[in-house]
Recover the amino acids of this structure.
């Protein structure tokens, strides 16, 4: 992969909730279509900035992907559905040329008291010492967008190989030009990669498309590097479900869930 990245940020702000998508947002399937991580983070950023209430945090964000999101100008809007001092429910939408391409919802809740004793069941995450991912064997994949804009360290498995898998990752560039990423933005930028990290289906044979991504965090991540461990389950006559865990160097901090369509790829 090298140190070259396709842009200095994932998005350029245009004002009025509008953003120009840079080539860094492009996913592995097409240079013209976005990976789900950047636009999930973009709407998460909007949730954080919408009527903020001191002492609260976004604990869960769900993004519904209505159609492929183009690498183009996007507009983001957010509204409060259920206001509250301790619990509030938010909804958001991303549009392209007036057409909705993604919708999202979020729960903003009061932060737990500082005297609460932590409850931790998960083992400590692996050391940040994995193998750098170069994507050199990904024939036909677009590597010069999102994949290059992130720095990857493989701990278990590899992209394009049967999962489950575990990676450490961090963005090389900010989500929005001129801004520092928040902890939530960093988590959302990575989370949609769960199905790529954990997939146990051959992408050359099967078309695998997630319809949504849910990120639930019991605490905010600390530091740039995040660890994502993921696995995928699928059944004939059913669909696929990808489950992942997010951690930082201090331990696990949340979960990722994706619903996926599975279909046979057309024979050439």
């Amino acid at each position: 992969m090298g140190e070259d990245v396709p842009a200095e940020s994932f998005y350029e702000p245009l004002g009025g909730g509008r953003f120009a998508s840079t080539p860094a947002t492009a996913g592995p399937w097409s240079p013209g279509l976005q990976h789900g991580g950047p636009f999930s983070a973009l709407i998460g950023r909007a949730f954080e900035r919408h009527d903020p209430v001191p002492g609260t945090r976004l604990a869960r964000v769900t993004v519904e992907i209505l159609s492929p999101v183009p690498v183009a100008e996007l507009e983001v809007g957010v509204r409060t559905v259920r206001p509250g001092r301790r619990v509030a429910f938010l909804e958001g939408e991303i549009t392209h040329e007036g057409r909705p391409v993604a919708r999202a919802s979020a729960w903003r809740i009061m932060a737990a008291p500082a005297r609460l004793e932590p409850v931790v069941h998960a083992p400590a995450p692996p050391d940040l010492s994995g193998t750098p991912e170069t994507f050199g064997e990904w024939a036909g994949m677009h590597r010069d967008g999102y994949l290059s804009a992130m720095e990857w360290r493989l701990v278990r498995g590899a992209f394009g190989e049967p999962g489950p898998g575990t990676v450490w990752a961090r963005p090389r560039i900010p989500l929005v030009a001129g801004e520092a990423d928040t902890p939530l933005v960093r988590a959302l930028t990575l989370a949609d990669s769960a199905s790529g990290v954990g997939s146990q289906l051959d992408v050359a044979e099967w078309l695998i498309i997630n319809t949504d991504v849910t990120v639930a965090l019991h605490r905010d991540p600390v530091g740039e590097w995040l660890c994502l461990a993921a696995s995928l389950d699928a059944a004939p006559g059913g669909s696929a479900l990808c489950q992942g865990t997010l951690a930082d160097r201090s331990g696990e901090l949340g979960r990722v869930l994706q619903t996926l369509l599975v279909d046979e790829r057309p024979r050439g």
